[in-house]
Design goal:
By secondary structure, this protein is of the alpha+beta class. It contains six helices and 13 strands.
């Protein structure tokens, strides 16, 4: 297994005050260097940064723009020629002024390994678009959605479990978000390490033990999950390294909270960033 794995849980047009609420986990090799969410010096955005390839997995920008990417788990598919980093996709969207639909249409999909990209701009006609190179770009319908490392809304156990939990969280969510009504329960949701039953697991080509290890919302790989072919890559450990919450309100104010982890353990307090709305 060579790719980072992630989970995006999306509540789109499900709250009267927040057109977009996004909960996300980033899973990655523990030894791969990365910077936590921060304002980028070279661009007006807040995002984490992959210090190997230079891109990001999720970020926000003024005007309520939000972008995130997940990788497709397909170990048997060869790498494209002149491959580009998928972390460029959200970073370049946040740098641009293009609408989600226009940006998605211009992506050179053949240059990337498999991906899904979530692109949001509340000022656009099609404000929430899911791009990818294993499906055509499409405008997402209002609802609660989940995207992991397969097709959008694929009924993987973590996607179904996460969507149910997110729907329950927002059912009585007030207009004013605070640690008690949103941040703490959302992070608790993202810390769910319940593994799926074997009969519910997808078959993505990584073997049953690894499918099980990757099945929770919060991933923490154990030694017994590591097969011989994965042992070298996994030697430094693998799992959820960051949980991120994003809220965009009806005025375009966008907020981001990020909780980071070291070796599967909470590291410090959540960071908070905000771009004001109109």
């Amino acid at each position: 297994m060579r790719d980072a794995m992630c989970l995006l849980l999306i509540a789109y047009r499900q709250h009267p005050h927040y057109p977009l609420l996004l909960l996300a986990n980033r899973d990655e090799f523990y030894r791969r260097p990365a910077a936590p969410a921060h304002p980028w010096e070279d661009s007006e955005m807040v995002a984490g940064r992959d210090l190997e390839a230079g891109g990001t997995w999720l970020g926000i920008a003024p005007g309520g723009r939000v972008a995130a990417v997940t990788n497709i788990r397909e170990p048997g598919v060869p790498e494209p020629q002149q491959v580009l980093s998928r972390g460029e996709i959200p970073a370049n969207f946040l740098r641009s002024t293009q609408s989600p639909q226009t940006y998605a249409a211009g992506l050179p999909g053949a240059r990337y390994r498999g991906f899904n990209a979530l692109l949001f701009d509340p000022r656009a006609d099609r404000e929430l678009v899911c791009a990818g190179n294993r499906h055509a770009p499409f405008a997402m319908a209002p609802g609660v959605h989940g995207i992991s490392n397969g097709a959008p809304d694929a009924p993987w156990p973590k996607v179904k479990r996460g969507c149910r939990s997110l729907a329950g969280l927002i059912a009585n969510l007030p207009d004013q978000l605070d640690p008690e009504n949103f941040i703490a329960p959302a992070l608790t949701l993202l810390a769910d390490d319940t593994r799926a039953q074997e009969s519910q697991l997808p078959d993505t080509g990584v073997g049953l033990p690894m499918e099980s290890a990757l099945s929770p919302i919060f991933v923490r790989i154990h030694a017994e999950d590591i097969s011989a072919e994965n042992h070298r890559a996994m030697r430094g450990g693998y799992g959820t390294r960051a949980s991120t919450l994003v809220a965009v309100d009806h005025c375009g104010e966008v907020q981001l909270w990020e909780q980071t982890y070291i070796d599967g353990t909470v590291s410090g307090s959540p960071r908070h960033f905000r771009y004001p709305g109109r």
